[in-house]
Amino acid sequence: MIEFDFSPFPEIQTERLLLRRLTADDVEPIYRLRSNPETMKFVPRPLVKNHEEAMQHISLINDLIDKNEGINWAITLKGNPEFIGIIGFYRTQKENHRSELGYMLLPEFSGRGITSEAVNGALEYGFNQMKLHSVEAVIDPENYASERVLQKNGFVKEAHFLENEFYDGRFLDTVIYALLKRNYKTIHFPHERI
């Protein structure tokens, strides 16, 4: 079984991004991200109703980091500490050296390759520092943007489960994409896209 140590907190730099720890200063953009029906369309979780709930979300994330059970980063542009999204490893199976990767981006930053670049940086950390053997991503089958991000980073479709999750009065399908460490390749992203 693998063990993690996220102290000191590991910041990640990519060509255009800095992935840093979430702080209380991120409460407003977390609120905007998780209260927006459009950004939460493919995330079967309740919308955040206020800044207090957004702060609880930040506290939950930081508690998991402090317990070395999971890690999330705020996505920021280099030279600008403002939160534009979140990425991290959830539902880690230490005994299987496997973790789930999740990410979200404020809508005004989508379409610029930022998510793909953040995924690549997180994967490098997950495989090389956390010593993961495989990483999975669970997505809604209609989330084509997320599917493209995963495929661009080398993930392959492992499964499509029919109506396996019940949320908000209906059954939802889920699709699992995964990437093995041996198939991971660092991707370099051009600067011009921002």
Structure description:
The structure is a single chain. With 194 residues, the protein is α+β, with helices and mostly antiparallel strands. Strands 1-2-3-4-5-6-8-7 form an 8-stranded mixed β-sheet, with helices on both faces. A hairpin with a 2-residue loop joins strand 3 and strand 4. Helix 1 crosses helix 2.
Write the layout of secondary structure elements.
Blueprint: E1 12-13, E2 17-20, H1 27-35, H2 51-66, E3 71-77, E4 80-93, E5 98-105, H3 114-128, E6 134-139, H4 144-152, E7 156-167, E8 170-180
Parallel strand pairs: 5-6
Antiparallel strand pairs: 1-2, 2-3, 3-4, 4-5, 6-8, 7-8
Strand order of the largest sheet: 1-2-3-4-5-6-8-7
β-strand amount: 25-35%
For the sheet with most strands, the description reads: 8 strands, mixed
Q: What is the tally of helical segments?
A: 4
Radius of gyration: 16 Å
- Helix fraction, binned, reads 25-40%
- What coarse outline follows from CA principal-axis ratios? globular
User: Roughly how many Å apart are the termini?
Assistant: 40 Å
> Quaternary arrangement of the chains shown?
single chain
Class by SSE composition: alpha+beta
Mean pLDDT: 94
Order of helices and strands: EEHHEEEHEHEE
Structure summary, number of beta strands = 8
Low-confidence stretches: none
